[in-house]
Design goal:
The protein has about 625 residues and is an all-alpha fold. It has helices at about 15-20, 25-30, 35-40, 55-65, 70-100, 115-160, 165-180, 190-205, 210-235, 240-255, 265-310, 320-340, 345-395, 400-415, 420-475, 480-495, 500-520, 525-540, 545-575, 580-620.
Length: about 625
């Protein structure tokens, strides 16, 4: 544009009305923001998903040194990215704490030096941005006053009685000053612009420019606006649609502040610039529509995950395996959640709080279950320790049958008791089974030895049977034969147990032969009874000791009774006389009973002696 103080410019003959209307197009270039564009101004920059916390802190430190050249969207994007990583660290620490047996409500996140550094840097940035904003507001107020003074000066030029041609240079200078002053308070923009345009138009109405100067002015404005059109058209290829949109706003401001072009080109140049602007604005709007659609899809996915978490049937989680399986599912859902991007801004916090509540509820219930399980395991441990003590008290017993039954019962009780903590499980089981194994190893050795001894005893008793059989067929004298029978019976009684399956057979052979010999040799009934009693006692198992004690007690009572009865008969003998036949008969009867009682008493003593020997032999084993 021409800047001259020449007061002798030729007066314009034609086209003055065109110059006066040239500025009208500038109103058409006023930037009108679409709803999507307004959202974009408020939207933070896209989150930097791939940055680490250290990289974010480094970028923020750079921003803190140069706040005025950094957009709020970029700062917000870094802030969101940092807190997403921080939230992930918190969830990881919480899970590890709960897996280690901690209660969810007791979880406290350890101090994070990086978070403290992040807060300090953000505080510095916030202070600088606040100071910058305050400075910008102050500058806007100053710019407002400057532009108001420019308008006043334009008003004076319009009202000046001097020739407008002489004031043209001053007019262009004021235009230059107006263009150099940029930001003013938003509420004053339209009013200022209208007043400015009003006096510019009035000045052009007064100005008598020659055609040559006017054409030159239009030509320079055309060059500027063509350049702006080309710049706007290139923005269609800009990969960053957000950056393209903001660059377009600056181009609109330049287009508006550039003077008019020739009337026949005004519609064409504006249509070209407007078409390029439409493409950029459409790309910008489509970008945010796609972003909103993706955010809605993210919300839908996160809602499904929340519903899955909230639908967990805790009544089915009744054992460790069920809880472990469900925990893996929950962790998988948490990992899936981390791969999903942001939901719409108004729902992002709400959906996360819903998910976190469902997760907290799950891990709280899990903690309560395992706390109760741990208490139950402690009770089970005490019960199993008690069984160990009982088993250890029995492990050295030689009462094989009774102790075997007791240990088998203890093993059944063990199986009925629930599990114990894994760290105690092997030790407590080893303690219990060691006591049981010790007993059964001793029993097996004893039984093995006993079986060998029983086989030897069987051969000995078979030999005795052979001797009795030979004795029954021999013609020895009665007294000698009776003595041999008694010795063989004594030898038989001295021999221990035989195998159980042979016991009845050999016992029957033995008693048949003894009875036969008793009949042949007319041996006393008492000797026969004592022999039979000995055989009966010898065939009793070691586990029948209680029966022996009861039999001995019974015999002792009978013996005492017989002794008392004998004492009575012996006293009565002193009152009887043999002076009559009747007295002789009664005396003989009493004497017979006394002899029988004495024989029975001796037999009872012998039986008790047999039992005592048996009990003594059992104790020594």
């Amino acid at each position: 544009m021409t800047d001259t103080h020449d007061t002798n410019l030729p007066e314009q003959q034609t086209g003055l009305e065109e110059e006066q209307k040239a500025v009208e197009v500038s109103e058409e270039t006023t930037v009108t923001e679409t709803p999507a564009e307004q959202d974009a101004i408020e939207q933070p920059a896209e989150p930097m998903q791939k940055l680490t916390q250290e990289e974010i802190l480094a970028k923020l430190k750079e921003i803190a040194q140069n706040v005025e050249s950094t957009s709020k969207a970029e700062i917000d994007g870094l802030k969101q990215a940092f807190y997403k990583l921080h939230s992930s660290d918190v969830e990881t620490a919480r899970k590890q704490f709960i897996d280690n047996g901690g209660a969810p409500e007791s979880f406290i996140m350890p101090a994070n030096p990086q978070e403290e550094e992040f807060k300090n840097i953000m505080s510095v940035i916030k202070e600088k941005r606040s100071a910058l904003a305050a400075e910008q507001e102050k500058q806007k107020e100053m710019n407002l006053q400057v532009k108001l003074s420019i308008i006043e000066e334009l008003k004076e030029l319009v009202d000046s009685p001097e020739d407008p041609n002489k004031n043209y240079a001053e007019f262009k200078k004021l235009q230059q000053q107006w263009n150099e002053v940029t930001l003013v308070p938003q509420g004053k923009v339209n009013e200022l612009w209208k007043n400015y345009q009003l006096y510019v138009e009035k000045f052009y109405d007064l100005l008598k420019l020659n055609n040559e100067f006017r054409e030159y002015d239009f030509k320079k404005n055309l060059e500027i606006k063509l350049h702006l059109c080309e710049a706007a058209e290139k923005l269609a290829e800009e990969p960053d649609v957000i950056s393209a949109f903001h660059q377009l706003q600056k181009l609109h401001m330049e287009f508006r502040d550039t003077g008019p072009v020739a009337k026949e080109l005004r519609e064409e140049i504006w249509a070209r610039f407007k078409a390029a602007s439409t493409i950029v604005n459409k790309r910008h709007q489509q970008h945010f529509e796609a972003l909103k659609e993706a955010e809605q899809q993210n919300l839908d996915q996160k809602t499904v995950i929340c519903e899955i978490m909230e639908a967990i049937d805790y009544n089915e989680l009744t054992n460790f395996a069920a809880w472990d399986s469900k925990t893996k599912e929950v962790i998988a859902l948490q990992n899936k959640w981390k791969t999903i991007g942001f939901a719409p801004q108004k729902m992002n916090v709400k959906i996360f709080e819903r998910f976190r509540k469902a997760c907290d509820d799950f891990f709280k219930r899990k903690g309560e279950y395992f706390k109760a399980l741990k208490e139950g395991m402690n009770e089970n441990l005490e019960k199993k320790r008690a069984l160990c003590e009982r088993a250890e008290a029995l492990k050295d017993s030689t009462d094989w049958k009774e102790t075997t039954d007791k240990l088998v019962k203890l093993q059944k009780e063990w199986k009925a008791i629930g599990p114990v903590a894994k760290k105690h499980s092997d030790a407590i089981w080893k303690r219990f089974i060691s006591a049981c194994d010790h007993f059964f190893e001793q029993k097996n050795r004893a039984v093995s030895s006993q079986r060998s001894q029983e086989a030897e005893n069987l051969e000995k008793k078979k030999a005795i049977i052979e001797k009795l059989n030979a004795l029954s067929e021999s013609g020895n004298e009665e007294e000698t034969a009776a003595q041999q029978v008694r010795e063989l019976m004594k030898e038989w009684n001295a021999v221990g147990h035989v195998p159980f399956k042979e016991k009845d057979k050999v016992y029957k052979q033995y008693h048949n032969l003894v009875d036969k010999l008793f009949a042949q040799l007319n041996m006393s009934a008492s000797s026969k009874k004592l022999s039979n009693f000995k055989s009966s006692v010898d065939n009793m198992q070691d586990g029948d000791m209680q029966a022996l004690y009861r039999e001995r007690e019974k015999l002792a009572r009978i013996l005492e009774s017989m002794k008392s009865e004998l004492h009575t008969y012996e006293n009565n003998l002193g009152f009887l006389s043999a002076s009559s036949q009747k007295g002789n008969s009664l005396l003989a009867e009493v004497n017979r009973k006394v002899d029988k009682l004495k024989a029975d008493i001796e037999l009872g003593k012998e039986k008790i002696k047999v039992i005592d020997e048996k009990i003594k032999g059992g104790s020594e084993q």
